[in-house]
Amino acid sequence: MQMHARADAASDPTACWSDDIFAILQSFDVRQVPYVPDAGHSQLIERVLASPSMRGIALTTEEEGVALIAGAWAGGQRGVLLMQSSGVGNCVNMLSLTQIFRLPFLTLVTMRGEWGEFNPWQVPMGSSTEAVFELSGIKVLRASHPQEVREVVQAGAMQAYNACTPTAVLLSQRLIGTKVFTK
Amino acid sequence: MSKANLLDRRGVVASLLADRKGAIVVGGLGASTYDIAAAGDHDRNFYLWGAMGGAVMIGLGLALAQPELPVVVITGDGEMLMGMGSLATVGLQKPGNLSIVVLDNECYGETGGQVSHTAVAADLVGIARSCGIRTAQAMTTLAEVEAFAPSLQDVASGPRFASVKIDGANLERVLSSRDGSFIVNRIRGSLGHTPI
Q1: Do A21 and A169 touch, CB atoms closer than 8 A?
Q2: What is the mean pLDDT of residues B132-141?
C-alpha cells in the first residue's frame, strides 16, 4: 500500500463527487482556481489543470488565494479556493476581504483532524475550522456522504456567486477517507 | 534616514503613473496607497487599507482576469516582505501584464519607522529573480524610474519587478476612499461589469 493511501482508496470514492464539483464550477463560469494541494482535492486539481477554461494556480500559502480571488473579482472573474482544513488558519486576516469587498467567495475545504484521524497535529485546526470561518463572517456548509456532495456544493456556489455571500463547503474526512500511515 | 540622495516617493509614483493609460494600479497598505491617491484619483486605482501581504496576489488575480491591460502593484518593503511567497506564485504564473514596484524605505513608516529587513539583509530584487521573475531590477535614480515607466504598458514581456530606494520621510497622508465595495465596484464598472 502506498504511504499516502486512503483507507478506502481501492474503490476510488472521490472520482464521482470530484467530477460533480468540477461540473458545478464550470457551470458557474469559475475561471481562477487557487489551491494548496491536498490529497482529497487531487482529482479535482487534475481536472482544473487540464481544463481550457479554468486556471489552476498553485499557492505557497492559502491566504494568497483569498487575495487572488479579490483581484480576480475586481477584474471580472470568479474564483474558488481549494485547501485543506489546516490552511484555514493561514487565511484569517485575509478573510477580511470577503466582507470588505462583499466578495463572491467560495472555498472548498477538505477536512483533517476528525473521523478516525491518525495524526494528532491535524486535530486542533481541524476542530476549529468551522468556528474560524463563522467568526470571520463566512457561511459554512458540510458534505459528509458522496451522494450529497453535488447538492451541497451547488448550494454553496449559488449563494456565493449569486448573492455574494462568502461560503465555505467542508468536505468531511468521512467522505474523503481517513489517511492511512504505513511504514 | 541618514542616507543621502534617496528618492522622494511621491515623485517616483507620479513618474510611474504619469502616462498610465488604462492601467489598473494596486496600492499596498500604508503609504503606497496614499502615494497612488496623491498621483490622482482614478477609477482603476485599487486602494488597500488592510490585507497586509496581499497586494501582489490581488494584482495577480487582476492580471490573469484582464490579460490585455497593464496591472501595476505599488507597495512598500514591509508589505512585500509579508507576502514574499506571492513572488514565487507570480514566478510560476508569469503574467506578461503584471508589474510590481516596491518603494523601499527600509522601514515601517506607518508604525513609527522601525527598521525593516531590507535595511540590512533581505534583497527583494534577488528574491524576485530567484522566484522566476527574470526582469527584476533595483533603482536609485529618477532617471531609472522614468526609463522604466513605459515598460509598464508592455503586457507581453512581464512579469517585471523593481525595487526603488526612497527616503524615509513620512509625508502628509493623502486619503483615498476606504470603502472596499466602492473601490472594487468602481474598477469593475470601468471594465464594463455591471453590479450583481
Answers
A1: no
A2: 97
